[in-house]
């Protein structure tokens, strides 16, 4: 599969539409540690997928340090995506790589 933003966006849109999710409104956020929860990085879902495709590998996220959110730059549980999880994202990146 092509690794450009348009192709990744189309794939994610097809995967997420049945869940009522919009890939443009999802963010992958990482914190430096589980105590302070200070945000270390936050990328849009499309940016995150493209990053891993360029690396040529499927990520293995630490669920204590990384999460899926409806808002960028936050690790607040109130903004956490409830119906799509990090293992789902890992699986989709794997499919795109395969």
Topology of this protein?
Elements: H1 5-16, E1 27-31, E2 39-44, H2 45-55, E3 66-69, H3 86-97
Antiparallel strand pairs: 1-2, 1-3
Helix pairs in contact: 1-2
Overview of this protein structure:
It is built from three helices and three strands. 21% of the residues are buried. It is α+β, with helices and mostly antiparallel strands and 98 residues long. The model has no long low-confidence stretch (mean pLDDT 94). α1 packs across α2 (45-55). The protein has helices at residues 5-16, 45-55, 86-97; strands spanning 27-31, 39-44, 66-69. Strands 2-1-3 form a three-stranded antiparallel sheet.
Task: Give a quick precis of the structure.
With 98 residues, the protein is an alpha+beta fold.
> Approximately what portion of the residues adopt beta-strand conformation?
15-25%
Q: How many H/I helical runs?
A: 3
Helicity level: 25-40%
Largest sheet: 3 strands, antiparallel
Key phrases:
98 residues, alpha+beta, three-stranded antiparallel beta sheet, 3 helices
């Amino acid at each position: 599969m092509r690794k450009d933003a348009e192709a990744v966006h189309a794939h994610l849109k097809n995967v997420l539409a049945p869940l009522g999710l919009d890939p443009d409104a999802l963010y992958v956020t990482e914190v430096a540690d589980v105590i302070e929860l200070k945000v270390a990085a936050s990328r849009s879902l499309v940016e995150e997928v493209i990053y891993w495709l360029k690396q040529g590998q499927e990520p293995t996220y630490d669920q204590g340090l990384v999460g899926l959110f409806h808002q960028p730059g936050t690790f607040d549980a109130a903004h956490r995506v409830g119906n799509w999880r990090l293992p789902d994202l890992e699986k989709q990146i794997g499919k795109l790589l395969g």
